[in-house]
Specification:
Length: about 170
């Protein structure tokens, strides 16, 4: 029996070490079909949900040197969500589906070793998609260059307007 526990804890530890984030959710009251839908939606964001005994998750999180506050939120019917890339997309899926069915609740999370309460995880879910954020950043970065070009072009534009006014006068 101890060997089986070790295998489960090692699997959880592997998931925690391979992911830059962890989101803890309460899945109490979910039907099997609803849980399958959660798995399907999370797969689209390259994330996966795992259900394990809370003591196993606590041991794996302790081995991964996660913040101690995490253990306070591991009670009841708990599932953990890990993934390879975009934590915001994963949090958005959990928040959206939780509102749809009214049973899935975000408890807390860990991002790059820092503890996040449920409000911070929901704030991540409310962020725009990564492509939109990149476009906004590009706009912010290109704005000074665009203004510089406008300023540099102004003397030539002013000279052209003066010359055109002279031509129009005759």
């Amino acid at each position: 029996m101890k060997a089986l526990k070790k295998v489960v804890i090692d699997d959880l530890l592997s998931s925690l070490n391979d992911s830059p984030y962890l989101i803890v959710v309460d899945y109490g009251g979910l039907k099997v079909t609803e849980f399958q839908e959660v798995r399907k939606r999370l797969a689209a964001t390259e994330a996966k949900v795992q259900v394990a005994k809370n003591t196993f998750v606590k041991q794996a999180a302790g081995s991964a040197e996660y913040p101690s506050e995490l253990a306070d939120h591991l009670s009841g019917q708990t599932a953990i969500v890990t993934g390879a890339s975009d934590v915001c997309a994963t949090a958005k899926v959990l928040k959206t589906y939780g509102k749809e069915i009214g049973k899935l609740a975000i408890r807390c999370g860990v991002l790059d070793g820092s503890f996040l309460d449920d409000a911070k995880v929901i704030a991540l879910a409310d962020l725009p998609p990564m492509d939109v954020l990149r476009a906004q950043l590009l706009g912010v970065l290109s704005s000074p260059a665009q203004k510089l070009v406008t300023v540099l072009n102004e003397p030539g534009s002013a000279l052209a307007r003066v010359l055109q006014a002279k031509v129009d006068q005759g």
